[in-house]
Design brief:
alpha/beta, Aminopeptidase, two-stranded antiparallel sheet, 11 strands, UCP029730, N-FG_amidohydro, N-formylglutamate amidohydrolase
Length: about 260
């Protein structure tokens, strides 16, 4: 489709270090807050595009740094989650939200099937097709693989405080998730929890169930509280923490 090649229509996925040697594959489905001009900011004031409803603040920077530290391939989204959420199954209420937290999204109300299909074709399918193709190649080459998806969360959601500094979410990858939690737990000052600030569900999540669990690949979703990623030093600190925690599973498997 020509539209995504025009000015203001970036690639749906930014692939970094595709041939990296790590057994970790990094995904960042909410890396960008970009909305092409034709959508008129979906009827929102521009200030909303800097909020967590439009992207996961700081997650892209952590992912990029982790890719370097781990020598890991990384896949980052090119469009705002408000247009279509890459970590929600197509057709669900969260896929193209009409309400995000307490904010109405006027440009998503009353969409016809053709516009839904257009967004899926331009923004959703290319991202997940490239991830799937990469995982297929690794499997064909016999390369061990683990998936870590990098996200950030707002400290307060619908008026409820979220006290955790980070969460590690998983369904079938309990060993991998617990190994990361143990690695992060070395710093006793951190409040890190399992399956917080929410629980992964096949009805409401996509990357971990589809790319991980369904393939038998250990996969986790890592959530970092976004206020901890508001500075370059905070981003660097969390990238370093995760780089130290993620290889713990590699060493455990190799022993």
């Amino acid at each position: 489709m020509a539209a995504q090649l025009a000015t203001g229509w970036p690639a749906a996925v930014d692939v970094l270090n595709e041939n990296g040697r790590s057994d970790i594959v990094l995904l960042c489905e909410h890396a960008s807050n970009h909305i092409p001009a034709e959508y008129g900011q979906l009827g929102l004031d521009i200030s909303h595009l800097q909020r967590h409803i439009a992207w996961d603040i700081g997650a892209a920077e952590v992912t990029r740094r982790l890719s370097v530290l781990l020598d890991a391939p990384a896949f980052l989204s090119g469009y705002s989650r408000l247009l279509i959420d890459l970590n929600r199954p197509l057709g669900t209420s969260g896929s193209i939200p009409v309400l995000s937290e307490d904010t109405d999204i006027p440009g998503n109300i009353g969409l016809d099937p053709s516009e839904r299909a257009r967004r899926a074709e331009i923004m959703f399918a290319p991202f997940h097709d490239q991830v799937a193709a990469h995982l297929d190649r690794r499997a064909k080459d016999g390369r061990p693989t683990r998936i870590a998806t990098i996200h950030s969360f707002t400290p307060v959601f619908l008026g409820i405080s979220r006290p955790w500094h980070a969460g590690v979410l998983y369904d079938r990858a309990g060993d991998f998730g617990e190994a990361i939690l143990a690695g992060l737990g070395v710093d006793g000052a951190l409040n890190v929890g399992a399956n917080v600030p929410y629980v992964i569900s096949r009805d409401a999540d996509y990357a971990v169930p589809i790319h991980g669990d369904d393939r038998g690949i250990p996969a986790v979703l890592i959530e970092i509280r976004q206020d901890l990623l508001s500075s370059r030093s905070g981003i660097e600190a969390w990238a370093n923490r995760l780089a130290a925690a993620l290889p713990a599973q590699q060493k455990e498997k190799a022993s």
